[in-house]
């Protein structure tokens, strides 16, 4: 049993608990501990096996071999993925540094491109708006007489 756990024990501490569940049923649990505070929690997923003493004697070593192999493969995959992400981030930072450092093709040219001369377009008079202030026409003589009579 401990031979199967040695590759994992070389990388981290393991918490091993064995308890009697019911009658002759035993539960063996192996809980890997974090090797560092920044390590992914997936690497602390426990293995719990329940069975009789005879079943555990027979099956536990193979289960520990599979658990250790899967755990080491997960660790390797996480390290590889982190390295790939770090390399991509570094490449992106370097690319961002290169963009503003490009020299301009002609140092004497203005920074804004010259706009081509466009002849002025004759504007049509604006249509009157319903909301524009309207000038009041001067009252005619007939309108003044009506206004005085009222």
Question: Could you explain how this protein is built, in words?
Answer:
- With 150 residues, the protein is α+β, with helices and mostly antiparallel strands.
- The chain has a domain at 2-98.
- It has helices spanning 2-9, 53-98, 141-149, and strands spanning 14-22, 25-32, 47-51.
- The chain has a 3-stranded antiparallel sheet with strand order 1-2-3, covered by helices on one side.
- A hairpin with a 2-residue loop joins strand 1 and strand 2 (25-32).
- Helix 1 (2-9) runs parallel beside helix 2.
- The N and C termini lie far apart (118 Å).
Chain-wise SSE layout:
Elements: H1 2-9, E1 14-22, E2 25-32, E3 47-51, H2 53-98, H3 141-149
Antiparallel strand pairs: 1-2, 2-3
Helix pairs in contact: 1-2
In DSSP terms (H or I, runs of 4 or more residues), the helix count works out at 3
Structural class: alpha+beta
With strands numbered from the N-terminus, the spatial order across the biggest sheet is 1-2-3
| Radius of gyration computed on alpha carbons | 42 Å
Q: Ranges with pLDDT <50 over ≥5 residues?
A: none
Q: Profile the largest sheet.
A: 3 strands, antiparallel
Summarize the amount of helix as a percent range. Answer: 40-55%
Total beta strand runs:
3
Order of helices and strands: HEEEHH
Distance between the termini: 118 Å
């Amino acid at each position: 049993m401990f031979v199967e756990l040695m590759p994992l024990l070389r990388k981290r501490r393991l918490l091993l608990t064995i308890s009697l569940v019911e009658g002759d049923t035993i539960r063996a649990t192996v809980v890997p501990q974090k090797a560092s505070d920044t390590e992914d929690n997936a690497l602390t997923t426990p293995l719990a096996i329940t069975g009789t003493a005879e079943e555990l004697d027979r099956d536990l070593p193979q289960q520990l071999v599979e658990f250790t192999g899967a755990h080491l493969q997960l660790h390797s995959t996480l390290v590889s993925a982190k390295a790939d992400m770090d390399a991509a981030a570094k490449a992106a930072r370097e690319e961002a540094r290169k963009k503003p450092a490009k020299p301009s093709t002609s140092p004497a040219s203005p920074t804004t491109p010259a706009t081509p001369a466009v002849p002025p377009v004759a504007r049509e008079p604006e249509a009157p708006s319903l909301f524009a202030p309207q000038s009041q026409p001067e009252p005619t003589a007939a309108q003044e007489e009506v206004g005085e009579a009222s």
